[in-house]
Amino acid sequence: MPRPRMVYRGKRKYSWIITLLAMIFVVFIALSIWLFYYLQKFIVYDKDGLHLDLSVHREMLSASDQPEAGRPAGFQPIDVEIVVEQPDYSTVVTNAGRDLQEMHAVYLPAADLNETALKFYAADMGDFDALVLELKARDGFLRWHSSVPTADSYAVNGSLELAEHIALLKEKGVYLVAQISALSDSVMAERNVPIALKNSLTGLPLTDADGSAWLDPYNDSTRAYLLDLITELHTMGFDEVLLTDMTCPNSEYLQFSKQMTQTPDAVIAVSSLALWLREQADALGVRLSAAIRSDVLRGSEDNVGQDPVLFFKAFDRVAVETDFDYFASDIAALQTALGGESGTRIVPVTTDYIPEQDSYIVK
């Protein structure tokens, strides 16, 4: 009887699969790195920031049809150059400034904002028909008890309950304006460092000689915080929100939180935020205005990010704090930026005197 054949079968090995997967992974990483650097030439910077535009065509250099050493026939080199230019806002069309009424306002600063002052104006507005309340100064602390979660999270909330006072003022027919400092916000920049403008040398919040710090206009959290405040004030019954300190410091060490191939200047940064806020204001149905610095109108070379022409496209009114000596020239500069006169959109802010203007704010 034949003996059964004994056959040895070795164990199957799967090491080749692991090797194959490792090779695929290495190839994937290499392709990812190549793609990252290849797409750099399609980066476009506009008013909304950096993005890829694969439809961009660059001028190709003339080249000989004869192949050179190491170059295939028909190859044409491409001159790649990334250029950051000032956006052209001349074609921007918005609804800013429509359906406005004249405003003859008295100003109540944050330091004097309390229940006694509000009751005083509710009883007697004198010759004024509007009241501007400074609800958020440059220090960043809110002067009212806000329901915005960020205010509690970073302990910047106030204690003043405004609802009852707003209702009483509205019954008296008072036009209410809430004034808030937009980007100059020292306490928030200190307590929420990721959304602050940075000093590129130290990585710390950028400050000026007075110790003031700013929020980053490109940061999504900055924009969300401002929008939450504007929305709440509009819901509470304010007829208009006036933004001050829509500025960006002029510093060679300016660093934004978003990674960019080149750092945009202050005007591009502020303009981007201003147009974004315009879109949000239109969606909310809120009147949104802004203050412009008088030194900008007087030709200052200190770039703080304010473009007067753009401001009239982004905001319903443009206010300027001026004095008697410069009143005429400041108003003329605003009229030039607007492209004409306006009794509602141009608002001088004066101290202790009523200017000869259809709309004004008196401190």
Counting H and I runs of at least 4 residues, what is the number of helices?
A: 10
N-to-C order of helices and strands: HEEEHEHHEHEHEEHEHHEHEE
Structural class: alpha/beta
The total count of strands amounts to 12
Rough outline: globular
Give the biggest beta sheet.
Answer: 8 strands, parallel, barrel
Share in helix: 25-40%
Strand content: 5-15%
Low-confidence stretches: 56-71
How far apart lie the N and C ends?
Answer: 120 Å
* Mean pLDDT across residues: 85
Instruction: Give the strand order of the largest sheet, numbering strands 1, 2, ... along the chain.
Output: 3-4-5-7-9-10-11-12
Rg (C-alpha, Å): 29 Å
Describe what you observe in this structure.
- The relative contact order is 0.11.
- The chain is globular, with a radius of gyration of 29 Å.
- Strand 1 and strand 2 (49-52) form a beta hairpin.
- The model is unreliable at 56-71 (pLDDT under 50).
- The chain has helices spanning 15-38, 115-123, 149-153, 163-171, 186-191, 220-236, 266-284, 294-297, 308-314, 327-338, and strands at residues 43-46, 49-52, 104-108, 130-136, 175-181, 198-199, 240-244, 254-255, 287-292, 318-321, 346-350, 360-362.
- Helix 6 runs parallel beside helix 7 (266-284) and helix 7 (266-284) runs parallel beside helix 9 (308-314).
- Strands 3-4-5-7-9-10-11-12 form an 8-stranded parallel barrel, surrounded by 5 helices.
- The chain is α/β, with parallel strands linked by helices and 363 residues long.
- Helix content is 31%, strand content 15%.
- It is built from 10 helices and 12 strands.
